Amino acid sequence: xxxxxxxxxxxxxxxxxxxxxxxxxxxxxxxxxxxxxxxxxxxxxxxxxxxxxxxxxxxxxxxxxxxxxxxxxxxxxxxxxxxxxxxxxxxxxxxxxxxxxxxxxxxxxxxxxxxxxxxxxxxxxxxxxxxxxxxxxxxxxxxxxxxxxxxxxxxxxxxxxxxxxxxxxxxxxxxxxxxxxxxxxxxxxxxxxxxxxxxxxxxxxxxxxxxxxxxxxxxxxxxxxxxxxxxxxxxxxxxxxxxxxxxxxxxxxxxxxxxxxxxxxxxxxxxxxxxxxxxxxx
Length: 282
Ligand code: PAF
Prior knowledge:
By secondary structure, the chain is an alpha/beta fold.
């Protein structure tokens, strides 16, 4: 695996390849990331992974400074997973001057759910992903489905800017008890880690209720919020949305969508000081 830290060196190295497959990450890699790397392997003639903790997508009070940076372990894991090129630019390399040009995703998609609770998050994500795309010029790019809204935002960005990139979602990997793998799981204290599974269990209950014919979405969402709050969580949202645009389904749509795989349930909630997100397609 070649480790490259500058855009010039990356371009020079990748000039020999026609079909880079790209997995952007912020490091602190877990099996979910590594599965994306393995999934990328047959999709390109070179697999490029980036590690860059992107300041632009963190709010001032969020965990940019403490975001786990595990360079040695990440390099070892990427080598074993078959990564060919690790692009790890410094902040000065990627943002040599204040990033005045940014990508602003449409509010109806980017200001709801994650974007509502983390204002500016998707602008930060789109800006860095656009820049990383410009550096790597991939033909295929892979993102985890755990970040469901992020995947949708990036898909739209690629479509609307007509970027010649195929965006592929990798399925969410889960621990044996069902907790979705996430770098932020590392923050959980032992008792919180045990409790954390309740997030996906609550989503499962919502999904089952919809499959069983429930149509009162507001009641379902309220009940889910109540369940987690009563257990000591601080939920931001537990919602039922259309898969196509993450908007609320109308009452008439619900039954059809629930039977026709058109819905997704999404959640974000804090346990202790750790904010977790998850989702399930219904
Ligand atoms: O999902 C992530 O790890 C980040 O949001 C991404 C896509 C690497 C952009 O910084």
